[in-house]
């Protein structure tokens, strides 16, 4: 194996410097500002600042609305991650069985990932809007009283499906790549031994794509916590009655709508800690069930 040798010691650092600068400016600096603002109490115009220590955190954790948002976030994140990964895995398995037009089939499934979250939310809002949505009209004709603007359960269902639909294409890409890396000889040998398609999937395919599944579990968890803000904002705005107000949307409401800057900063720090903790737990315990090699 050939070894790459840089002509100068400074060159590697110069190549890394753009990424380091971007990470420092757009992640570490905002994170440090959030940590500092979380221990301050500021008026909306920034004219008066008071150091309050952990008072913002105590106030946030004692707020019933925040605890409600935490429960909503758990339900929303689990439902979105499971639905997005299950649908993507099923589509990837179906794509492997397509003989003619496989490239077109995969391309059509990848396209939704190019849609911005806010645009995806508006698409689902228009389709299921109780006043003018096509699918809402079909549901009413079928005798189902569809009104996600007033029914909390229907609103949660709509944002979960919209968020999962946006993420399916991303998961599909990785599942297809993982399945293509499985040696065909294993599948053919199992088929010769009499194993059906379902048994081959559960005993051969699923264990061999476990590393990819674990990676997507982490990615989908982070996606559900952070990247679904645009979908929720476009579809329900956190309503009705805070039924779809997740933690990240509450940060926006308290900080940009109600101008409670200290509370919003404390919530963002708590949210960052939750995601870091969940990721650490997944790597510590879930990874034990992953088979590499």
UniProtKB/TrEMBL annotation:
InterPro entries: MetI-like (IPR000515), MetI-like_sf (IPR035906), UgpAE/MalFG_permease (IPR050809). Gene3D superfamilies: MetI-like (1.10.3720.10). Keywords: Cell inner membrane, Cell membrane, Membrane, Transmembrane, Transmembrane helix, Transport. Residues 70-282 form the ABC transmembrane type-1 domain. Pfam families: BPD_transp_1. GO terms for cellular component: plasma membrane. It is found in: Cell inner membrane; Cell membrane. Its main location: membrane. It is a multi-pass membrane protein. One of its GO terms (biological process) is transmembrane transport. The chain crosses the membrane at residues 12-31, 72-92, 104-127, 155-180, 201-226, 265-286. It comes from the Bacteria. Part of the ABC transporter complex UgpBAEC involved in sn-glycerol-3-phosphate (G3P) import. Probably responsible for the translocation of the substrate across the membrane. The complex is composed of two ATP-binding proteins (UgpC), two transmembrane proteins (UgpA and UgpE) and a solute-binding protein (UgpB). Belongs to the binding-protein-dependent transport system permease family. This is sn-glycerol-3-phosphate transport system permease protein UgpA. The gene is ugpA.
